[in-house]
Amino acid sequence: MQKLLLPIVLAVSVVLVACEPHELAWWSSTAEDLEQDDYNAGCEHDMEACIRARERLTTAIGDDYGPTPTTTTTTKTTTAPPSPVGGWRSVSAGEDHSCGVRADSTVTCWGDNSFMKADAPSGEFTSVSAGTRHSCGVRTDSTVTCWGRNNDGEGDAPGGEFTSVSAGNNYSCGVRADSTVTCWGLNNRGKADAPGGTFTSVSAGHGHSCGVRADGTVACWGRNNHGQADAPGGTFTSVATGEDYSCGVRTNGTVACWGLNDDRQTDAPGGTFTSVSTGTMHSCGVRADGSTTCWGLNDNGRTDVPNGTFTSVATGAMHSCGVLTDGTVACWGNNDGGQAGPPE
Fold first, then answer.
1. Calpha distance 185→115 (Å, rounded)
2. Distance in angstroms between the alpha carbons of the first and the last residue of the chain
3. Burial 156-189 (b: 16+ CB within 10 A, else e)
4. Distances (CA, A) of 186 to 146, 159, 168
5. pTM score, whole prediction
6. Which of 164, 212, 278, 330 is least buried, going by the fewest C-beta atoms within 10 A?
7. What pLDDT, in 10s, does the model give residues 123-135?
C-alpha cells in the first residue's frame, strides 16, 4: 500500500504528507531526490484519494515513483488458456500490458492500453519489450521503434542499428550493433547514464539498469537505495532488473539476486536455469529441464505457474507470461486489464 500525498510545495522543496487530519508528517527533500520509500509509506485510509494524489505528484515532480496504487479486492486472478499452437516466438510482460512477437514476426500487445502502449505498429520485429507505460521493439532491419507514453522521451528511440532493447519505467535502453549501450528518456538518479564498454545484453528497470559486459561481468547504474545496483562478482549469461532489485543467471546456470527482499523476491531457488525475469515483487525463471519456477509475493497468483515446459518467461508488475515449447503463450496472475489474456 502507498501513502496519500497532499500539497507539494516545490518552491521550498518540502512535501507534506497527510493520512488523516490528525496524522501529519513532514519530509524535507528536493523533488529530484525524493525517494520512492517516502511516497510508498502508505495509502491505508483512502485509496481513491491516494490515486488522485499520485497523479498530482506525477504532474509536479516526475513519474518515477512506482505504479499507481491498486487494491487486490477488485482484481481478478487467472491462468489464461494458451494461445494457438506455434503462434509465438517471444513474450514480454509490462506493468499492466503484455506484448509478443508472433511466428510471422509481427508484434501483438494486449491488456491496458493507456497511452496507446498496446497499439503495436505494423512491420516485422525480432524482439519486443513491454515497459511501464510504453513499449519498444527491434525491427528486422535492426532499428528500434517505441510506442506509448513519451512524456520524458522514452519513446524517442535513437537512430542506428540495435541487437536488443529494454523498456523500463519511463526510459529505455538498448544494445547497439557495436555492442555499446545507449539509454534514453527520464534520467533521474542516473538510470539512463549507461557506462562505456561493450555489452551482450541490457535491462531497464524501475529506477536502475544493469547489463552483462562482453567479459561476462555485470554492471549496474542508477538508483541504489536497496543495493539493487551492487552487482555481485563472477560471470553471468543474463541479467534482469525489477523494482529495487535485480537477478541474473550465472555461467554455471545458478541464479543470483540482490537488492530489496521484503517479499523474498531475491530468494532464488537452487538448481540450474536458462533464464530469469524480475517484476515488481516477484521473479520467475526457466529451469534447465524447461519447467518454470516463480518466487516472491504471490497475491493474484502471480507465482502460480501453469503446467508445461517453457522456452522463456517474462514477469510484469503483478502478472507473468511465458512461451511454451509448442510455441503457445500462457499467462497467469492479475488480469484486471486483460494483461494475462493472450489473444488468439
1. 16
2. 35
3. ebeeeebbbbbbbbbbbbbbbeeeebbbbbbbbb
4. 15, 18, 10
5. 0.78
6. 164
7. 999 999 999 999 9
